[in-house]
Fold this protein.
Amino acid sequence: MSKFRLHDLLKQLKHGKQAAPVSGSRRRIPAWSLWSGTAVAVVLLFIVIGISISPVARTVISHEEWLSPELSKANKVESKSIRIHRGDHAVSILQRLGFSLSESRQIVIAATDRYNLKDIRTGKVFKRVDSAESTDVYYNINEMAQLHLQRQIGQQVWTCNMEARTLLTRQRVVTGKIVDSLFGAADEAGMDQRTTMNLVDIFAWDIDFARDMRRGDSFSVVYEEHFGEDGRILDTTILAAEFVNQGNHFRAVRYEKSDGTSSYYTPDGKSMRKAYLKAPVKFSRISSRFQLSRKHPILGYTRAHRGVDYAASSGTPIHAVGDGYISFIGWKHGFGRFILITHNNRNHSTAYAHMRAFARGLKRGDRVKQGQVIGYVGMSGLATGPHLHFEFRVRGVAVNPLTVKHPPARPIPAKERDRFMQQTAPLLVELNKLQSPAAWG
Ligand SMILES: [Zn+2]
């Protein structure tokens, strides 16, 4: 059960944003971008059709959006592209695009204020577009920006703009219920692997995905897919998400602060980041299958055992769950290769045992950051198979991590609070829509 929605596609198709327009230059839509826009539209349309025929998805598109009258105006346009090879120079490429030597030089000079065309890179593309009104040259600097040079027909002068490249964004809303594995449920819902991993990362301080995920857990995700001109997904951004783990609801919303940085917060404005990660090993496609295929996946905390074991294949990276320093690193009896980290709260330490190897160069006294790789899963010492034995210690005594009182997460700054509420309210509305009444009953 997933639905998905198309968002502002055409708005972006129509307006190639100009990052730094030259004053006096006319803002116009390059004809070739309309063509490539059409191509993207067609590709997206196929994606959309593909999704809509799958039984688990529902699609809403307004057809008017696709059939903009402006798209059909782009006729009588000739274009030619040349890919840059080793040893090519801008002038020689422009000549191959049909410009005279002197005009080629003129074009390079016209660009200098915006971009030095001596810096062109192998593999990038120069494109010449001739239409009834102008001759245009494009050079794609990176995924976000392109150089646009233009000469009006009958004129001699070349003008130059730096422009944002056409990037299409589509918003999707997806829900899933875990039957066999998180990735299975994500696949079913049509959510790609990258977004699934990002979802796991957002809740890494709240949910131990490696041990605590259960059949019946569910998720809802509102996210954006960003497409390049060729219709491929470049990236995705999760805007809001909910994960229900063993009946506990966790929610996160993305907030972009006024300084432009963004991170995830609870709906009431507390950072999702906390002093300790829930698990010292990252959840992966492989471990998910392994864990969920068993009733009692791994030996958990008991009085006798005093720790938590993570079954993982040999060589799986082990991450420090919190900031601190290495207070022990070396061989320790049955623990084999063993690391003890003392955390910033001096009462707290975490222990990692049975490693195959330590992270290169790590030594006693070194400071480590949360998430830093400190070693690799193995079976050194007394171990019957590769696994990580992990302990959370309070004043040196191993405790059940669930019972540890953690410092509260940092709230959003007071001066950002109103802005936060405004920005995140519509996302929460989306999430609420996905909840069946029973889920909140
Ligand atoms: Zn153990």
Remarks:
- The chain has a mean pLDDT of 79.
- The chain has three domains: 17-38+73-166, 170-274+421-435, 275-408.
- The CA atoms of residues 267 and 425 lie 9 Å apart.
- The first strand starts at residue 2 and ends at 5.
